[in-house]
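Hi all, a correction to my earlier message: I attached the wrong file for DUF1722 domain-containing protein. Here's the right sequence:
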Amino acid sequence: MMKGYKSYKNIQASLKTASSPENYKKIYEQIQSIKSDPFLHKDVINTLEHLWGYFKVKAHPGDKEQFFILLNRCRQQPVISYLYYPEDVRYTLAFISYLLETHPDPYLLQSTLFLPQNEWNTLPDSPPSKI
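and the right structure:
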């Protein structure tokens, strides 16, 4: 979503219609290609606002205030795109990680945004064997 909302929606639509290993391989290749694209600042802000939606009811008033202070700092970034998160974006994501620890959400806990980069994006050479 942070690399471009249009790309996100295209991947989402492809996942809904994928029905073969070839389809999934194509989606994987699309994701790999998008990973090298710059982050689009407007889409980063949109994603941060979207993530806040998972916590807005559960979060304490002080957490809400802190989130919006951080988000407003992010909004003031003068750049349109970047390859690495600016400091204010990193702080905001760290705060969202704190909220996720405080108020676990099963969906967000599976998000690659909050997982260390590991084997999520590795395709096996052959399908897993059935036990």
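Sorry for the mix-up. The chain has two domains: 1-37, 38-116.
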